[in-house]
Amino acid sequence: MSPRITFITAGRILRQLLNDHRTVGLILAVPALIIALISAIMDEAPRVFDQTGLILLAAFPFMLMFMITSITLLRERTGGTLERLMTTPTGKLDLVVGYAIAFGTAAAAQTAVAATVAFWFLGLDTAGPTWAVFLICIVTALFGMALGLFVSAFATTEFQAIQFMPVFVVPQLFLCGLIWPADQMAGWLQGVSDALPLTYAVKALTEVQLNPDVTGDMWADLAVVLGAVVVATVLGAATLRRRTD
């Protein structure tokens, strides 16, 4: 891997994102606004908002990074950019790490804005440190990025890329504990929930919410999400190949 090529790739993707003002607004403004709306809805139940708002801080980066990565990679595949890059000294690892740096930076900015609004303006409260929440959200966003990288290989249009969300994203949002505690679901659904990486991101956030210090359980849950990032990235990297007719 060449660090120079990796950072060139990351810079190119970041410039593409910054030039798309609607995407910038989607990344930075929309999550904070929705969390603010949820806070207003739960105005009489601040403890419920503490739990729901905290999960949303990780759910939004996961969902948006999946969507943006899959569409961005699809454009590069169908537009011939990826084809041209694969004929240069740029390696698969350069591309994958470059994408991770770019989308990780976008996720960090999104989390920073949403967390600032949630913690300092909406009164979101956790017993544990804020930096742990930030770390979990970034890792969760990288998981969304890796899934988007993988899924982009199976879509030929942007609409098809979005159609994969009900398969890869929505079930995880429903079963991770955002809507209903996983331990109160039907037994077979609990088994499905335990197999989904987003569930472990929520468990890690719950550890931060309940404990003043970071715990071994939090690191263990976060390690599961990191493992999912690695697996999805490897699968996604395997789809980065020349497809000349």
From TrEMBL:
One of its GO terms (cellular component) is ATP-binding cassette (ABC) transporter complex. InterPro entries: ABC-2_transporter_component, ABC2_TM, ABC2_TM_bact-type, ABC_2_transport. Keywords: Antibiotic resistance, Cell membrane, Membrane, Transmembrane, Transmembrane helix, Transport. Pfam families: ABC2_membrane. Its main location: membrane. Residues 11-243 form the ABC transmembrane type-2 domain. The chain crosses the membrane at residues 21-42, 54-74, 95-121, 133-154, 161-180, 218-240. GO terms for molecular function: ABC-type transporter activity. It is a multi-pass membrane protein. Coiled coil: none annotated. One of its GO terms (biological process) is response to antibiotic. It is found in: Cell membrane. Belongs to the ABC-2 integral membrane protein family. This is Transport permease protein. The lineage of its organism: Bacteria, Bacillati, Actinomycetota, Actinomycetes, Glycomycetales.
